[in-house]
Amino acid sequence: MSTVTALAVDLGSSSGRVIAGTFREGRIEEVEVRRFPHEARMVDGYLSWDLDFIWSEVVAGLRDAVAQFPDAVSVSVDTWGVDYVPLGADGTPLTPGRAYRDERTIRTLDAFQERLPDEAGWAATGIAPATINTANQLFAFLQEEPELAAQTEQILLLPDYFTYLLSGQRGWSRSHASSSALISPGAHSFSDEVFEALGIPRSWVGDITPELSVAGPCTVEGLEQLTVVRAGAHDTACAVHALQRDVTQESYFLSCGSWSVLGVLRDDPLLSDEARALGLTNEARADNGLRPLFNITGLWILQELQRDWESQGRTHNIVELIRLAEAAPSTGAIINPDEPQFALPFEMERRVLEALAAQGVETDGLDEGAITRIVIESFAARYARGIADLSALTGAPATQLNFVGGGSRNKLLCQLTADALGVPVVAGPVEASVLGSLLAQLEIMGHLDPADRNDVISRTARTETYEPR
């Protein structure tokens, strides 16, 4: 069997990575070539990503990867959802990369809902209303920056922007577009109804671009040997591509990073009134399938607590915090991660303590370990509620939960989740987005038969099973 290497550019909302995956003897060996931190900062009054910095790190990482792995044949980019880049007539960005947590969508929410009430938005898209959605962001762009909006020729969703920089080819990848609240249920075409209601120019986007496809040859100097492919533009779409799936039963998954994405793999959207009332959202996989899911504020809460405590000179190392949480007795108190204040940056400890105090919980004396345990128990309780809701919607009870992403390293979270669900939790692979991207690239390039994917995953991925106590 020949040896071949694919390169995954995996961009999260706090760090980015370039990973080389070498396929040999039926398994994939991963090497992290480059990792870099980044964060959103205020620029001209808006919370923004430094796209120039991210791009420079991506190119540097890919050049290092090609030097180390001269047999590299392809590259694909995945990112977090909903963010976009407006391009002028010359193809260059008109603004810094606006971040989904910017408050402009809150300021314009009333006007948005006058144009497109929540019920109408759900009916047109199957996507849960949320201020972070691309539809809300584009409406806010039109409202608050009309001069720049008038200069916009097209917008590219964030992973498609980097694919464009790599290949010169524009597209609107299905998996990422599906999270935008601009696309019809099933995620195969944009919704003209939504564009018309919100006054968003339909010319800003083209047709939906299929995933598992070739964008074109890389045009960046020194990287011309690479073929740029679309292996799953949304990081969660990549993550679920790395799950072993038994198509005879429902596959429930949790991808836990800054956001907790809790869902089920299906071929058709879930569009009932019950699904809408629960806040379900129907997003696409890298293949033609769907992933109905709940977007839940996740490890972001712990990340912000760490930032609070670091600024105060208190314990903030996540390994130490989990050790303290394991030693702390359960208070029985939980918060609701879905409450909007927990999605905001800064002062997270204050937000958590205020939420507890509002329930009558005594907060004096709650140290870092106790607070961390409360947050982790809150996640487990929310996951249990979400799986119960999904099971009711599908009519199929969960027999296990596939738990991937950074949160799968957290043994306390995995065990408490298994306890709360009453079914086994299979934790891993940790870097599921990367593995899914690599698998998809190998399939696109003809080096892996999709029918053999489960076998390759079993040989490659490290997993640990947590039985409910």
Task: Compose a concise summary of this entry.
The chain has 469 residues and is α+β, with helices and mostly antiparallel strands.
Key terms for this structure?
469 residues; 21% strand; globular; alpha+beta; 6-stranded mixed beta sheet
Describe the overall structure.
The protein is α+β, with helices and mostly antiparallel strands. Helix content is about 40%, strand content about 20%. The chain has 18 helices and 18 strands. The protein has helices at about 50-70, 105, 110-115, 120-125, 135-145, 145-150, 160-165, 175, 190-200, 235-240, 275-280, 300-310, 320-325, 350-360, 370-395, 410-420, 430-445, 455-460; strands at about 5-10, 15-25, 25-35, 40-45, 45-50, 70-80, 85, 95-100, 155, 215, 225-230, 250-255, 260-265, 280-285, 290-295, 400-405, 425, 465. The strands form four sheets. Strands 14-15-13-12-16-17-18 form a seven-stranded mixed sheet, sandwiched between helices. The chain is globular and about 60 Å long.
Looking at how many chains there are and whether they match, the oligomeric state comes to single chain
Mean pLDDT: 96
Number of helices: 18
Derived structural class: alpha+beta
The percent range for helix content is: 25-40%
Give the termini separation. 44 Å
How much of the residues is beta strand, in percent? Answer: 15-25%
Q: Got a strand count?
A: 18
The side-by-side strand order for the widest beta sheet comes to 14-15-13-12-16-17-18
Task: Give the overall shape.
Answer: globular
